[in-house]
Write a structure and sequence with these properties.
heterodimer, A: 538 residues, alpha+beta, 2 domains, two-stranded antiparallel ribbon, elongated, B: 248 residues, alpha/beta, Rossmann fold, 4-stranded antiparallel sheet, 8 helices, 9 strands, globular
Amino acid sequence: MNLFQIIIKQMRQRALSTWLTTISVLLGVALAVGVMILRRESQALFGMKDFGYELIIGPPKGSPLQLTLNTVYHLDVSPGNIPYSLYEDLAAKTPDPSRFDYRPLVKIAVPFMVGDSYNGRRIVGTSPEMFGIDSATGNPIDGDHFEYQLDKRYELAQGHVFHRAKFEAVLGSDAFAKEHFALYDDKLSEGENEKRHAVFQATHGFPGPNDKPDIHKPKWHVVGALKPTHTANDRVLFVPVISLYAIAEHEPGMIDQALIRAGFDPASIPPEGLDEALRKAGFDPGTFPQLERRRLLHLKKPSAASKPAEDLLHDAAVPPVPAAGVDKKEGDDDDEPAYTLDGEGAIVPDLPRDAWEISAVLVKARGQGYQAEALKYRFRVANVEATAVSPAEQMRDFFATFFKPTTHVMLIISLLVSIVAGVAILVSIYNSVSARLREIAILRALGATRRRIVLIICLEAAAIGLVGGLIGMALGHATGAVESYYFNLRMGQGIDWWSSDAYEWLYLLIVVGIATLAGLVPALKAYRVPVATNLAAD
Amino acid sequence: MAIIIEELKKVFTGPDGSVVPVIDIPCFRLEAGAHVALIGTSGSGKTTLLHLIAGILAPDSGRILFDAAPLAWASDSPPQALDPRLALDIAALSEADRDVFRGQNIGYIFQTHHLLGGFTALENVLLGMSFTGRPPDRPWARHLLAQVGLEARLDFRPQKLSLGQQQRVAVARALANRPKLVLADEPTGALDEANAQQVLQLILRLCTEVKASLVLVTHDMAIAGQLPRVVSLADLNHAGRLSQKAMV
């Protein structure tokens, strides 16, 4: 019998004690490895540096981190809105002498609007440019495409990109698959497509579990599904941003915000001053929607207007202010369509263009150096309507400020747990040596030297450390799988819980080292076992 | 293997600090292949003498010389020969060297079997081969167990064997390394008469088979009488110079 067979035999003889000790080791290792995976993968997830765009232009409210988390990871609530005209300026292809010319600085700009949801998934309003299609022509863009990550574009798995102004949608891979959507088939009736789940309606905001969902009337046709990007965008339903302006419920909020920006309180505008207020807010009183005019004239409570107006296009679950005298119910929008269709069937929202707002603009600068910095500078200094943040900078700071120290502490805790497990090995083997003095004496009588006995005890401890460590690593990775599931659930983006790195193996080595050292104490006790005395002790 | 003991002394210190002489043998010689029964009263120091010969204990003084020629010695640096013919004094070896020497050359049978409970009969015999530095000889282990009548119980753990069977496994284990010397400490002491006889005959037969010298300690004259030579420890101890009171 070789040494290892002897060790395994002796461990099996004390199976319960051996397993209990092994379990204490594996729990410590599992905790540590789980933290290591979380630390490593969260760095990859949140510390992402390879964004496909340099800047997010968003409202100068909230924090830059909030804007980044909301836009990139679809976490947190949107900090507010910016005028749609700002996007038009950033994306302009021809210069307007009255507006700042961003063309030398901006290569690609795509709008980004949030506020509605479908079954807990975010609906994002954007333009076909996000998917490499020219809004004006409907054809693929020649030259640079928008990239969600460096060198990574959205690609269609099936279908086509939505029209810039129709109730059409392109779904992220997870949203399409998990919600069991089908592509809209023009040959079938609307009803049949609804049955095939090729049509959906948006819910206003993200209603809580006990909230009555406020479902918008328009129905979007699913015309495309994206290939997996392994980002939070896989959970998203993308629709044309213009289609969101055609929702009757969105109108009041946007109009109120425009009035507030112009210095009016929508709830206290006197009837005789309404046209003047509308003019100052950028609306044409002659074409202003009658429904909205009636609403503004009937608003009585000064406090009722401004707050909902802020929330209307945010993620808040607060329903919009209903038209006076109308008790809104589920699916019961104002019933009066808030849009018309032009000759090509494209949506023409009733909402005046000046009231259009978006949550952010994703900007790919013409260069990562001067151009990106100049844009940032311009928005921080010269533009009070919006601010520019670098998502890469924000995420790097976020990781360094919050995540890294937290995982540091967790790592230290798990190391302490491993040391406690080492002490458990010491106690367990020390007790077993005390109970095995006669066995040790017999081995000595059979010719085992003191050193051999020390080796046997230390190897036994090391074996417990190794087995516990390996099972602990496996369990740690299983914990990583749970973490991945959680991340996926929250952000639509999992983590690589399967692969291990050099640090894990180094940690395993340390654990085995601690275990071996823990075995040294009982081994020294065994070293001193007097053979003759213990052979006689029967 | 011949053994010569010269001026061997061992004392124990009592709990009260008193010095108790146990072994004081001016001279004792055992010829190669000889079988001898060592008799003495309980507590007379018989086990201590076996422990000294086996190197489990170190003497306070004196020499225990082993005939060099037939010895197996695996150590890199053999101890200095004291005599051209008698090359090895186990009393002069370090503890580690004594352990190695014992594992390779001496088979030890205890009064109680001292088998390891977590190991089967076969594994217990193989365990006896584990500390020699040589690869385990599984066929020989099976042969020994067959010789002691346990070929059908190779995979039985000691708890599943009778007392007599356990002692027979212990006999097989002592012979596992084809030792030059077998030390048997009251090997039949815990057995009934029938089993005692069976075990004794096995020891004698197997020692003859491997050409091992045998020192068998017993206080049973019926057992001792079956060996060619009977020696009294009291006679060895300076012809009884140590008082009976001093024996422990």
